[in-house]
Amino acid sequence: MSYRDLDVWKRAMNLATAAYRIAQSLPDTERYGLAQQIRRSAVSVPSCIAEGRSRLFTREFARFLAIAMGSLAELETQCLLAGRLELTREPIDPVLRSASELGRMLQSLRKSLDRNSALQETRPNR
Questions:
Q1: Could you read off the pLDDT tens digit of each residue along the chain, which spans 126 residues?
Q2: At what angle do helices 34-54 and 7-25 cross, to 10 degrees?
Q3: Long-range contacts, stretch 89-98, CB < 8 angstroms, 24+ apart
Q4: How many CB atoms lie within 10 A of CB 72?
Q5: From residue 57, how far is each of 40, 100, 102 by CA, in Å?
Q6: Which domains occur in the chain, in start order?
Q7: How far apart are the first and last CA of the chain?
Q8: Torsion-angle region of residue 80: left (phi > 0), alpha (psi -120 to 50) or beta?
């Protein structure tokens, strides 16, 4: 199974697309500030899922999921800040709901991997 088959990766890609729309709606003064940070953290989430899934061992996948969760928290914070500062023309609530749901999915997958890591530690995660 490829990372592209994972629902969590597909949702992360959808979230990244929505986050890019928010970044594009920010004023030009934020092009190299908040907009760039939003894009970076948004790209990091599906990228970490893909990289982790492509690693050889389950434990490594779990570590990359933890990194994706950190990037997701960054993205949520940046979107909340854009909303508080009234910088975006795009609504942030749908992105925040999607991020919350994705966070639960990542946490659940990571817990599942952690439970199975003792069994999987010597076997590839493929």
A1: 899 999 999 999 999 999 999 999 999 999 999 999 999 999 999 999 999 999 988 999 999 999 999 999 999 999 999 999 999 989 999 999 999 999 999 999 999 998 877 655 555 555
A2: 170
A3: 89/25, 90/21, 90/22, 90/25, 92/22, 94/18, 95/15, 95/18, 95/19, 95/22, 98/11, 98/14, 98/15, 98/18
A4: 22
A5: 26, 27, 23
A6: 3-120 (1.20.1440.60)
A7: 7
A8: alpha
- Count of residues in the chain: 126
Q: Which residues pair with 124 in a beta bridge?
A: 57
What is the reported pTM? 0.90
